[in-house]
Design a protein that fits this description.
The complex is a heterodimer of chains A (56) and B (235). With 56 residues, chain A is mostly helical. Helices cover 70% and strands 0% of the residues of chain A. In chain B, helix 3 packs across helix 5 and helix 8 packs across helix 9. Chain B has a 4-stranded parallel sheet with strand order 1-8-7-2. In chain B, strands 3-4 form a two-stranded antiparallel ribbon. The chains are: A mainly alpha (56), B alpha/beta (235).
């Protein structure tokens, strides 16, 4: 299972992907908000660590 | 343990593109590992306008909320389900969910059927009671992830109308369990296995998807099912 802070990051990434996709689809402008380095790197690390240990 | 609800009327999953087209797309890998720009390029290239039109015709009155199976996978956050939800929302003028996420890592990509059955996706996040929802994911295989996302939303009182994926095998589109398949499964493998299944997973055979049930039905005997599930859990 993900930790509470990892779940929070995952929710944040959901919102940020949505914002970026909508920008690209032309709904609204502004800079790309998705902080892939911060969120993506953290969750990728989680994925590697949890992949073997997260079995039910 | 997983909460699963019985299947009543649930339409076949709508599949936008064939598997090889999706997996060979230059943006696929980056999209699968969290790049929203790549996910946009992938979904924008492969969204099927006939399906978009079908959705508009079928659900215009309800304007369902599109909710993605947003999850961490082996390579990071999979951006495709959310990009699919957002692109459809953009085209159809429907709302999207921003709080429901998968809270475990199941490593389903490339896994065999028993591993998929053994490692059930779990979700967290609020849904609105009485509101209509449509699910999005990048892929439908056995349909277990969509079944669990549907059940999570139903547990909050939401009404799940259907599911849309970017790709999947055509025979996986029917995820609602057929009554005949259920009868065949129970006849072949018996009450004892179903009780074991219920104790292990928290739901009985009548909550399996059609593909999950067929996978078990095609397995020769009960011992093999139990051993393979236990082996997959121990990984």
């Amino acid at each position: 299972m993900l930790t509470a802070s990892e779940i929070k990051l995952l929710r944040q990434s959901k919102v940020e992907i949505a914002q970026r996709v909508r920008e690209l689809a032309g709904l609204r402008g502004g800079p790309a908000p998705f902080t892939e380095n911060a969120i993506g790197t953290s969750l990728r690390r989680t994925a590697r660590v949890s992949a073997k240990g997260d079995k039910q | 343990m997983t909460t699963r609800y019985l299947w009543d009327v649930f339409p076949p999953v709508l599949i936008h593109a064939n598997e090889s087209t999706v997996k060979q797309h230059p943006s696929y890998r980056a999209a699968k590992s969290g790049d929203p720009d790549a996910a946009y390029l992938l979904v924008n290239a492969l969204l099927n306008p006939i399906i978009v039109g079908q959705l508009a015709d079928t659900y215009a009155r309800q304007k369902p909320t599109l909710v993605s199976a947003h999850a961490v996978e082996g390579a990071g956050v999979n951006a495709i389900p959310e990009a699919l939800a957002d692109m459809l929302a953009n085209k159809l003028g429907w709302p999207t969910d921003n709080g429901i996420v998968q809270i475990n890592i199941v490593s389903h990509t490339g896994a065999d059927g028993f591993s998929r059955l053994a490692r059930q996706a779990k979700f967290d996040g609020e849904a609105l009671a009485g509101k209509p929802y449509l699910l999005t994911d990048d892929f439908v295989g056995q349909g277990g992830t969509l079944a669990n996302l549907r059940s999570h939303i139903m547990s909050k009182g939401g009404n799940v109308l259907g599911a849309i994926v970017l790709t999947g095998k055509p025979h996986s589109a029917k995820i609602a369990l057929d009554r005949v398949t259920l009868q065949e499964l129970r006849l072949k493998h018996g009450q004892q296995l179903e009780n074991w299944w219920d104790q292990r997973f928290g739901f009985r055979f009548d909550c399996l998807t059609e593909s999950e049930a067929r996978y078990l039905l095609n397995t020769p005997d009960v011992d093999r099912i139990r051993n393979q599930i236990i082996a997959a859990v121990q990984g």
